[in-house]
Design brief:
With 737 residues, the protein is α+β, with helices and mostly antiparallel strands. The protein has 19 helices and 28 strands. The strands form seven sheets. The chain has a seven-stranded mixed beta barrel. Strands 13, 16, 25, 26 and 27 form a five-stranded mixed β-sheet that branches. Strand 1 and strand 2 form a beta hairpin.
Length: 737
Amino acid sequence: MNDWPITIRETPRRELHDLTARTLTVRAESINEEARSVEAVLATEAPTTVYDFRSWRLIDEVLRVEGAQLPAQVVMLESHMRYGLDTVLGSVRGMKKESGEVVGRLFFAEGDEAAERAWQKVKQGHLTDVSVGYRAIEYTDIKPNTSAVVNGKRYTAGERTLRITTKWRIREGSLVPIGADEGAKIREEHCGTQHRETKMNEELRKYLESLGLRTSASEDSAWAFFGMLDGDRRAEAETLRDGKPEQKSEDPSKPEPAEPQRQQPEHKPEAPTPQLSTVDTEAVRADAIRAERKRVTEIRKLAGEDISEELVQRAIDEGWDTGRASEAFLKAMRDGRDAPVDGDVPAIHSRDHERDCNVRTLAAGVQMRADVDLIEPGASDAQRAAMANLMEQGQRYADMSMLDVCRECIRLDGGRLPHTRIDQVRAAVSGATLASVFTTAVQARMLRSYVEYPDSTDWAGSEDVMDFKTNERMQLGKTAGLQKLARGDTAKHATIGDNKEEYKVARYAKQFVADEMDIIDDRFNVIRQTPAEMGAAARRLRPDLVYSILLANAALGNDSIALFQAATHANYGTTGTTLAAATLQAGIAAMAKQTQDGVNLNLNPRWLIVPQDLRFTARILLKSAERIIASASGGTLNPLLQEDIEIRMDNRIGAAGVTDPATGTAYTGGAAYWYLAASTTQAPTIIVGYLRGTGRTPVLRSFPLTQGQWGIGWDIKMDIGAKALDYRGLYFATGAS
């Protein structure tokens, strides 16, 4: 699958073409002042309208929660601006799946002006919308107004295509001023600061302690513990929280607020905490013990032998989850100390390897090793600056071996690094990151070679066709000319004649692989040289098809006469018509005299097409400022200079010839062959058709090797066809070869 085409779940933006984004919900009740963090719903299975850059249209999409790939940490950005370090506000960590949702915790960086402003706006309730970016890996598209069963569940599409994404990976989270989902707002009635100002009721406190909250925990810690609950425990805790009547003021002289008194009758049936009688205390304690044992085991397993017992015990005593523990352990190992600073561990420094080495920078490094210039010549100043910044980041990874790249991809996939090199290659191939990193470089090399490879057939026409069926190109009949219209009369219909030409688009394809031996041996040419050769081969298809048509000189479907023919078509200079001023002028005059249904066309040649043997002769004839005319009239004018004819040179029409990709037939040209072609706006000549949706370029996709092969492979396809449409805009002559 080509990794370029990706969509955006808000207003489409060019710089986000490799990510999809959807609005998420902030769980404001889980705000943690000390950790500078807040919990958010990252995704649900609700259908959402997105813009699909693969098809360039709006579609509806459902994300299957069980198919989410959740990294340990992703970056949190400002409004999806991901091409600079200044827009990084923090990170999203501790992501998990619960009750049909994907949730995570947003951590705001310390000591950063932009992050501090954003943090204050979130706390004060001014900034309520967040958006998550992800990459769709596997999906099923359901056509409009049809139904299908995907992974055991039936879905029905509406007026738009419905995409069921069954495998996807979260890449980033962003704070945005206005999200796509009007309902994704901070829950003001459960504001975190309100919880810290209101004393937790005794029943809720006892219930949290039964789940593992330390009896000595502070009020803030208790509310933070409350915010980390999920599932049935969360529902039970919310019942106890909401069922408790409003706390009375500790000052007896202070009157009760009027509003709670008016609402007292409505809540009276719920007020005396009747829900406690439904709680099975023994079952709750048993669950709490099992959960606590599991947490302790996971923390100790995470610590291994690298973390001191003091820090491990602190993580256990203070109720840290594995997400917070892993951050603290990682920082302790990096800083060479066993305990973190007071409060939660700050975000990793922006220049650390763990943050800077991501899929994009790693792919940039591989592209630079493959001699790909990341800065596009036609890009804007802002785009070029972003590309230069990416090159600077990618430079650190440009000297990596293919095996080193595999190791980094395993880390980015969130997996554990195997011990042997073979297992490392296989683990990387089984993940999504390696295919993305290598394919980005392969695609870039292939397309760069495709664009830069010379093609002399710009004189031929081009079009996009819908499918691989026969395409008919009809011609208007004799009544096509405009006719005088009397006052009040109705214009006559132009009729389509019986004359037509037919052709089909065909698929041309090839595949190549980088098996695990290539990767271990660091045979980088598989990524650098082979894609370039494939791109050049794809580029050769068009001129091979076009010049095969010229040399084949097959009969047209319109009249069953050869394309170049002297008697009827009057577009063939007989053998011995060597390219010279007089013969070229005769060819120009012959083209200008062409008629259709008795109408003079007055065509002018726009191109002179010659083999390499005639390139200098052609330039002298067309570009000389003066020409000595040794005739009775005399003079030094070069009239051919005024004809504005451009030269195209291609040795396929020379003695070397060309092989038709469609049939495998070899055709031989000649050193003295030359052709004239009119502009396709004046007259149809040869048309080249491409399958619509391919962008008139080769299409690349990657795949893991199976069935007795190990590694990663790519295949490339090009959907193209060509046909001569008419003879009038073409002229052929040849001298003695």
